[in-house]
Specification:
By secondary structure, this protein is α+β, with helices and mostly antiparallel strands. Helix content is 48%, strand content 15%. The chain has a 3-stranded antiparallel β-sheet with strand order 1-3-2.
């Protein structure tokens, strides 16, 4: 705490990100990020919001870039 204000943890050091934080961090739209969270296995629904596990989502993006485009196919690979 500095001058009565909490500085917060940098996004790159957080384990779980909100939809807005994740969309800003990964440069994706909020709607797209929410759709991905609803479909993927890298997010948890807590209360009334999704929290994105940052490292899992980074792995998801890497696999998408490697050519595994179907979410169901990705889930089969992780099991």
């Amino acid at each position: 705490m500095e001058n009565g204000k909490y500085k917060g943890i940098p996004l790159k050091e957080k384990c779980m990100l909100t939809i807005r934080e994740a969309s800003a961090y990964f440069n994706l739209g909020v709607k797209k990020m929410r759709r991905l969270a609803e479909e993927g296995n890298f997010a948890v629904f807590v209360g009334n919001r999704y929290l994105i596990h940052r490292e899992r989502f980074e792995n998801y993006l890497e696999r998408m870039m490697d050519g595994i485009e179907d979410v169901k196919e990705l889930e089969d690979v992780e099991e």
